[in-house]
What does this fold into?
Amino acid sequence: MKLPVKRWLTIIDQTEGPRGEPPLRKVAIVAVIENPCAGRYVKNLMPMTMASVQLGALMAEKAVHAMQPHAAMGVGKGGVAGLAGEQEHVNALLTTEFAVPVREALGGGKAWISSMTKRGGPGTTIDIPFNHKDALYVRSFYDGMTITLHDAPAEDEIALILCLANRGRIGARVGGLRPENVKGVDGLT
It folds into this structure.
């Protein structure tokens, strides 16, 4: 199965850091695709899952490019299925198969990638959660990006979203594991 992208959206949100801190750059890449399962029940979604590998690689390439000159340390994913589709159709596209090329593009990533999915139409707003790419317990990375899809998805489309951040929240100071202490930490525990 192929999942050709009908439309790409790139959103860049950069907040300058106070007190000499680096800026916080958040990037969202949205791929709007036709939902091959729209309007019907499909028991086996594995063809969508397997096709998501190429989509993950393309989205990661675009997201890493949009992050420049910063390296991505935070990551999140999600999507919105148009109303002729199911939430499960988006989830089928966001499994480990999608995430492997994303991790490769980021130079690794031990932690699972937070996600949010839902159904909706044009004008839908979705909050994509972030976490540190290598360790879930870096609290300063518990953040997100709010995306409003003004002209997508149509009822037979899926808007798939990949978000990156170069650092944790500005002014974060509530404790927890620090990013500089992540080396050697098992991000899955």
